Amino acid sequence: MKVIRNYLYNAGYQVLAIIVPLITSPYISRVLHASGVGDNAYTNSIIQYFVMFAALGVGYYGNREIAYVRENRQKMSETFWEIQILKTLTTLGAYLAFVIFVQIYTDYSWYLWVQSINVIAVAFDISWLFMGLEDFKRTVIRNTIVKISSLICIFAFVRDANDVALYIFIVGASTLFGNLILWPYLKGILVPVKWRSLHPLKHFNPTVSLFIPQVATSVYLQLNKTMLGAMIGADYSGFYYNADQIVKMVLTLATSLGTVMLPHMASAFAKGDHKRVNEMLYTSFDFISLLSVAMSFGLAAVSLHLGPYFFGKGFGPVGPAMLIESVVILLIAWSNTVGAQYLLPTNKVKAFTTSVVLGAIVNAIANLPFIYFWGLNGAMYATVLSELVVTGYQLWYVRKLVSMKKLFTNVYKYLFAGIVMFIPVFLIDNAVKTSVISLALEVILGIVIYVVMILILRPTSLLQVKEMIGGRLKGNK
C-alpha cells in the first residue's frame, strides 16, 4: 500500500506539473515569441551540461544508497553527508568550468549567466534523500510550492519580449528556492555524525559509474536543441523544446511510478528478495504499458493541430514534430521501467550505462544528416531512433533474467486498443476546427474508446487493479 500511496502522491504532483505548463506555455510563447522561447531553449540546453556535471549521478546513486541503509539512522546520516559533501565539491567545479566557458563563448552570455542559477541549485538539492526513504509527501509539497510560486511570478512580472532574462531567472530561482525548502526537515531525520570519520571521496567512483549514463542521456536530450540552434537557428531549438515539453508532460504520469519503485525495489534487493523484485517488475511494466500506450496514441491523434493552437501563431512546425515524437512516450516508459526500476536497484549499472551510451552514439551520428536533410523533424527522428536503441538493448539484456512472456503478456492488447482509439480521433481532429472544446471532446472520446476496448479485451491488469482497489478499501475500514 505504501507504493500505491507514494505513486498517488507523485502522480498527483505530476498532474500539477502538467497543468502549470499548460497554463504558462501558451502565455510565454505569445509574450516572448518564437525568438525568445528559442533563446531560452538554446541557452538552457547549454547550461544543462554544467548542471549534469554538478549533479554527477547523485540523483540515482543517492536514492539507491539511502534505500540500502535506511534501517540504520547512523549509517544513513553518514552516507547522506558523504554524498552531499561530494556533490557540493562537484558543483563548485562545474560552476568554475562554466565561468571559464563564458569567457570563451561570448554569444548569449547574459542569458547564460542567468541560467547558471540552475547550476548553483544543484548543490542544495537533497530530494534524493527523501526518495531513498520513500518519503514522497515532502518532495511533492516542495515541488508544488515551486510550481505555484513560479506560475504566479511569471504572470506577474513577464510582460513582453524583453523579459526573456527575467523569465529565465524566475524559473531558476524557483528551483533553488524549492531545494532550500527541504533542508529544515533534516533535523528530524538525521543524527549527529563525526565529521572526521566521513569519507566522501569513496562515493566518487560509484557516482561516476552512474554519471556516464547521465552524460549519455544528456547528449540525446540536449544535443538536438543545441545542434538545431547552431545549424538552423535558435527558433528551431524553441520549436523542438515546445514539442518535447508537451510529450514529456504527458510522459511524466507514467514515469512517476519509476521514481516511486526505485527505492522500494532497492530495499527488496538489499534484503535478498530477488523473486519479489522480478514480480514487482512484471506488475510495474504491465501498468506502465497500459498507461503509456494510451498516452502515446492519444497524443499522436491530436498533435498536428494541438501544437500550433496551444503555442499560437508562428509555432506551426511544433505539430508535426509532436506527432513524430509521440512514440517515445511508450519507449521511454519501457526503458524507465527496466532501467530505473530494475537495472539500477539491482546494481546492474554497466548494462544501464551501455544502453544509454549506445543511444547517445546513435543520436550523435544521426543528428547531423537528419537535421541537415529534414530540419526539426529530422531531430525528432533521431530522438525516436536513439530511444528505440536504449529500450531495445535493455530488453535484450534482461531477456535471460526475467520472463519476457510475463513482461509483455498484455502489451498486444494495449496496442490494439490504442490503434482502435487513434483512428477515429485522428480523423475527427483533422476534420473539425481546432478549439478548446473540440480538443476536450477528442480527449474524452479517446479515453472512452480505449477504456471500452480494454474492458472487451480483458487484460490480466484488470484483476490487479481490482485487487489494489479492494485492498485500499479494506485498509480504510
Automatic annotation (TrEMBL):
Entry-linked CDD domains: MATE_Wzx_like
Subcellular location: Cell membrane
InterPro entries linked: Poly_Biosynth_Transport, Polysacc_synth
Segments traversing the membrane: 7-29, 41-62, 83-104, 110-133, 164-183, 246-266, 287-311, 323-344, 356-374, 380-399, 411-428, 434-457
A GO term from the CC aspect: plasma membrane
One family name in Pfam for this protein: Polysacc_synt
Main location: membrane
Membrane topology: Multi-pass membrane protein
Protein name according to UniProt: Oligosaccharide translocase
Organism (species): Ligilactobacillus apodemi DSM 16634 = JCM 16172
